[in-house]
Amino acid sequence: MKDLLGAVIEKNRYWTQYGNVATYIPELSKGNPDVLGISVCDMMGNEYFAGDYDIKFTMQSISKIVSFMCALIDNTSEKLFRKISVSPTAEGFNSIVNLETKNAHKPLNPMINSGAIATVSMVKGITSEDKFNRIYNFMKEITNNPDIKVNDDVYHSEKSTGDRNRALTYYMKSTRIIDDDVEEILDAYFKLCSIEVTCKDIAYMGAMLTNDGMLPCSGKRVLTKEIAKTVKAVMATCGMYDASGEFAINVGLPAKSGVSGGIVAVSPKKMGIGVIGPALDQRGNSIGGVKVLEDLSNRLDLNIF
Ligand code: DON
C-alpha cells in the first residue's frame, strides 16, 4: 500500500501547478501550492502514508461534517431537517442567493457555509462557546488526536474578513433559522474552521465513518449506524459543493473538502482517506487531491457506483 500511495502522489503532483491557493482568507494565501500528501487508515487502524502527509492545515469546511455529526446526535433528524435541507447545490459554497429564493429560507445543505453555521447553532450548549467545545471535543475523539488546536492566525484572519458569512448569518437570523447572537455563533464557526490537523487525523475520522460509526482499533461506537449513513449520504451528494456530481462519476466516494486543500474520503468497509493539496481548482477543491483520489479509486476499484 505504501508504494502504491507513493506512486499515486508522484504521478499526480504535476497537477498542483494548475491550481491556486485560497486568498479570500488572507492567512490561507501563505499555503504552499506544491504540497501534495495522502494518508490512509483501514478499519483495523493500520495507517499508510506518502508525500507531504505530515503537513498541518486547517480543517475549514471539513469541520462541517463534524458539526453535522454532533447536530444529528443532539437532535432528532426531523427537527434538524426542519431548519436545514439536504439538497445539492449548483451555487458556490458561500452563495447567498438560495437562502432567499429556495426552500422557505432554509439553507440548502449542511456542507455549505449557511447550512454549516445553522448546524453549529443546533448543537447542544447554552452558549456558542459550549457549542464550540462540544464539537471540538468530539473532533479530538474521532481524529484520535487530543492535541489538535485552533490556529489563531487563521482564526483571526477569518474573523476579520468573514463578512460574507456575517451576511448569511444575519439573513438566517431574520428568517428565524437561527436564534443565536450572530457574532457569537460565527465565532464558534470560525474557530472550528481554523482547527489544525494532518491527513492522518482526517483519515482516522474517515475510517470511523467507513466502520459505520465505530472507531478503528478500539471498536468504540461514537455514532449510530443511522447517523453514519446520513453523514456519508450527504457527503456523497453535497460534500464537494457544485463539483459533487463530477466527483461521484470520477472518484465515487463520499467525501468532504475544505479551502485549505484537505479532503477526507470514505471507502465503505475498506478505509478512510485524507489528502492535502493547497492548490485549488475553480470550485474550491484541491486540484491535486481530487486527481490523487481519482487515481487511487481507479487503481483499487473503489468507486461505489
Ligand atoms: O467560511 C469559510 O468560507 C471557510 N472558513 C470555509 C470554506 C470552505 O472550506 C469551503 N471549501 N471548499
Automatic annotation (TrEMBL):
Q: Recall the GO molecular function terms of this protein's record.
A: glutaminase activity
- Provide the catalytic activity annotation: L-glutamine + H2O = L-glutamate + NH4(+)
The EC number(s) this enzyme carries: 3.5.1.2
Q: Which domain of life is it from?
A: Bacteria
Chain sites annotated for binding substrate:
61, 113, 158, 165, 189, 241, 259
**What top-tier enzyme class does this entry carry?**
hydrolase
Leader sequence range is none
Identify the keywords attached in UniProt to this record, alphabetized: Acetylation, Hydrolase
Q: Which is a GO BP term held by this UniProt record?
A: glutamate biosynthetic process
Q: Does the keyword Phosphoprotein apply?
A: no
InterPro entries attached to this UniProt entry: Beta-lactam/transpept-like, Glutaminase
The record, for HAMAP family, names: Glutaminase
Whom does it interact with, and what assembly results? Homotetramer.
Name the family. Belongs to the glutaminase family.
Please give the PANTHER family that the UniProt record associates with this protein.
GLUTAMINASE
Protein name according to UniProt: Glutaminase
Q: What is the lineage of its organism?
A: Bacteria, Bacillati, Bacillota, Clostridia, Peptostreptococcales
